[in-house]
Amino acid sequence: MKTVYDIIRRPIITEQSMEGVESKKYVFEVDREANKFEIKKAVEEIFGVKVAKINTINYKGKLKRQGVYVGRRPDWKKAIVTLTEDSKPIEFFEGMV
Q1: Nearest CA among 23, 46, 40, 28 for reference residue 97
Q2: For residues 68 and 83, what is the distance between their CA atoms, to the nearest angstrom?
Q3: Is residue 41, in this structure, part of any structural domain at all?
Q4: pLDDT per residue over 65-77, tens digit each?
Q5: Alpha-carbon span 70 to 88, nearest angstrom
Q6: Within a domain: 42
Q7: With contact defined as beta carbons under 8 Å apart, do 51 and 84 qualify?
Q8: Are 72 and 64 contacting, i.e. CB atoms less than 8 angstroms apart?
């Protein structure tokens, strides 16, 4: 069985994802097999917040080439987590905005 730390892999810190922090939207890389219910439970347990909505996006790994050798980067999944209005913000992102 997966733990909550196996489901939430890492936060995604980009300019576009930091714009959503003001409206309580946070972006994470998550396990490809995790569904929205598991992601919601993991975020609520790790950060102690209330989740209103989750959007997920699956990405295919890019093809990469080094000379004649062709490979592929791994596929991955991104989750955009929206918190409720009465929920406190996630402290991890506060110093970055």
Answers
A1: 23
A2: 47
A3: yes
A4: 999 999 999 999 9
A5: 46
A6: yes
A7: yes
A8: yes
